[in-house]
C-alpha cells in the first residue's frame, strides 16, 4: 500500500510547503520542527492500522470502556536526517523502543555512488511492527538496504516506511524490493538530478536540519 498525504487536504500539506520553502529553510529550528510535526502526523495515521484491545478505565466517577494499543511499534530511523521525524513519531508512540541505522552515500571517482551501511543499534524486533523513517526517498537504495538488513535479522510482523518527499523512481524501487511494506509519503515528485537529488524536492534534509557537512 502507498499512502500519499498530498492527495488530501490537511495541515500536513502546510508542513510540507514550509519544508520546501527556501526562505523558511533558513530557520533550521523550524525546519526540524516541521519534520517533527510531519512525523507525528504519520504516527497518527499509522496508528489507525494497528491492533487494539478493550480495557476498563477507572475514573473518579465510575468505569469507562477504552481501547488501547496492544503493543507499541518500534521506531527506526536512518541517521542523521531521520532524527526529527523520529522525534515526532516518539511524541505519539511515547512508550516505543527505538532503532538507529547509520547509512550514507559513498561517491566513486567516476561520480557514481554506492550506499554504505555501517551500524545498526536495535532492540529485539521479533514479531514487532516497525516504522522506518527517512525524510527523503530519492533512489530508494538506502531505504531498501536498511530495511532488508532488519528483515534479514528479525521476523518483523509489519514494516511501515515513511518519507517527507519521495521520487517516483524511489517509490518504484521500494515497491519492487519491499512489496509487503506500507509506504507513507508526504508528496511524490517525478524528477531527480544527475546526482539523485529530488526535483523540486527540498534540498539536503540533513544539512538543512543540522548544518552543512564538511
From TrEMBL:
Its EC number is 2.4.2.9. Pfam families: UPRTase. This is Uracil phosphoribosyltransferase. It is an enzyme of class 2 (transferase). InterPro entries: PRTase-like, PRTase_dom, PyrR_bifunctional. The keyword Glycosyltransferase applies. Residues 11-211 form the Phosphoribosyltransferase domain. It comes from Pedobacter albus. One of its GO terms (molecular function) is uracil phosphoribosyltransferase activity. SUPFAM superfamilies: PRTase-like. Gene3D superfamilies: 3.40.50.2020. The keyword Cell membrane does not apply. It comes from the Bacteria. Keywords: Glycosyltransferase, Transferase.
Amino acid at each position: 500500500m502507498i499512502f500519499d498525504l498530498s492527495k488530501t487536504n490537511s495541515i500536513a500539506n502546510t508542513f510540507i510547503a514550509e519544508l520546501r520553502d527556501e526562505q523558511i529553510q533558513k530557520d533550521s529550528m523550524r525546519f526540524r520542527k516541521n519534520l517533527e510535526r510531519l512525523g507525528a502526523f504519520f504516527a497518527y495515521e499509522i496508528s489507525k492500522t494497528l491492533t487494539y484491545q478493550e480495557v476498563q478505565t477507572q475514573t473518579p466517577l465510575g468505569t469507562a470502556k477504552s481501547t488501547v494499543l496492544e503493543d507499541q511499534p518500534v521506531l527506526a530511523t536512518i541517521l542523521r536526517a531521520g532524527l526529527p521525524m523520529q522525534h515526532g513519531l516518539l511524541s505519539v508512540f511515547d512508550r516505543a523502543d527505538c532503532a538507529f541505522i547509520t547509512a550514507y552515500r559513498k561517491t566513486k571517482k567516476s561520480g557514481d555512488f554506492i550506499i554504505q551501511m555501517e551500524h545498526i543499534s536495535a532492540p529485539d524486533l521479533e514479531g514487532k511492527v516497525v516504522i522506518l523513517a527517512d525524510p527523503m526517498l530519492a533512489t530508494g537504495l538506502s531505504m531498501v538496504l536498511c530495511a532488508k538488513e532488519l528483515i534479514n535479522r528479525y521476523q518483523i510482523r509489519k514494516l511501515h516506511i515513511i518519507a517527507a518527499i519521495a521520487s517516483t523512481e524511489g517509490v518504484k524501487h521500494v515497491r519492487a524490493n519491499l512489496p509487503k511494506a506500507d509506504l507513507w509519503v508526504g508528496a511524490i515528485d517525478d524528477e531527480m538530478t544527475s546526482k539523485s537529488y529530488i526535483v523540486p524536492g527540498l534540498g539536503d534534509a540533513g544539512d538543512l536540519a543540522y548544518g552543512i557537512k564538511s
